[in-house]
Write a structure and sequence with these properties.
107 residues; mainly alpha; two-stranded antiparallel ribbon; 3 helices; 2 strands; 74% helix
């Protein structure tokens, strides 16, 4: 019912985009210097959180199906949380890809 998310695949795609841009380190406006791994770490954590919420929703659905729990509200809540977190991650990815395409088109 819920597709598994592979953080490794998304991180690999991000690395490929980084390689295409020829950027060694992202720039941090706060420090005025390049920040090492901050973006990768933040986005990686986001992917892991989304994956965990989807797994939790899947487990709660299985518990409902097997009769271990009878709280339909809890199952629906976890499924909605997983759906919203996935949609947020997808929107962030789409915005990043659009920004990348805009940068490339101006070059």
């Amino acid at each position: 019912m819920i597709d598994k998310i592979s953080p490794e695949i998304l991180l690999k795609q991000m690395e490929q985009l980084k390689d295409n841009m020829n950027v060694d380190q992202p720039f941090s406006p706060e420090t005025g210097k390049a920040a090492e791994g901050d973006f990768k770490e933040v986005f990686g954590n986001l992917i892991k959180d989304v994956d965990e919420s989807q797994k939790a929703a899947d487990v709660s659905l299985k518990k409902l199906a097997t009769g271990e729990t009878t709280s339909i509200q809890e199952v629906v809540l976890k499924m909605e949380q997983a759906d919203i977190s996935f949609k947020l991650m997808k929107e962030i990815r789409d915005k990043l890809l659009q920004a990348y395409k805009d940068i490339i088109s101006t070059s």
